[in-house]
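R.M. (postdoc): so does anyone remember the format we settled on? I'll just put the structure tokens first.
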């Protein structure tokens, strides 16, 4: 019998089996998934890199 792979929930670190029993994987619950989404939305999480400056919108014809 094949054992399910265990991963840690990125939010609370609880072990989660990587199977269809956990529809919110890699999160353990919808709550942890929404907490993580909120942290990205508030920019608490960010991917490192140089800031990107928006292009001047007057260059484009609409």
């Amino acid at each position: 019998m094949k054992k399910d792979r265990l991963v840690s929930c990125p939010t609370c670190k609880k072990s989660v089996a990587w199977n269809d029993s956990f529809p919110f994987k890699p999160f353990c619950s919808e709550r942890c998934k929404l907490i993580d989404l909120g942290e990205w939305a508030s920019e608490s999480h960010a991917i490192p890199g140089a800031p990107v400056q928006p292009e001047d919108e007057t260059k484009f014809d609409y």
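R.M.: ...and that's the designed sequence above, right after the tokens. Also worth knowing: The chain has one helix and two strands. The first strand starts at residue 6 and ends at 8.
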